[in-house]
Amino acid sequence: MSAYFIAQVNVHDPEGYEKYRSKFMPILQQYGGEVAAVDREVKIIEGEWPHQGTVILKFADEEQATKWYYSPEYQEIVQDRIDSTNTNLILMKGM
Question: Which distant-in-sequence residues (6+ apart) come within 8 Å of 23 by Cβ?
C-alpha cells in the first residue's frame, strides 16, 4: 500500500531552504520516493490554509517512506529545512 508525506511549509530563510532543496532529490530518489505534487498557490476550497507551500511525496509503502525519513542521508540535511522553515509534516497510508 502506498504512503505519502504531506508537508505544509512556510520558508523564513530562503538561503537555508535552498541549501536543503539542492540536496533533497537524489536522497528522495535513492529511497524510491517521488514528488507527487508541489504548489505554492493552492486553491482553498474550504477553511484556511495559512502556508506558503504544500508538498506531497509518494513512496511504495510506509516502510520505504520511514526508511527515507530516518536514513542517515536525509538526517544529514533535514536540519537545514528545520532551521529555515516552519513545517507541518504527516505520513499517511494510501488506499
Answer: 77
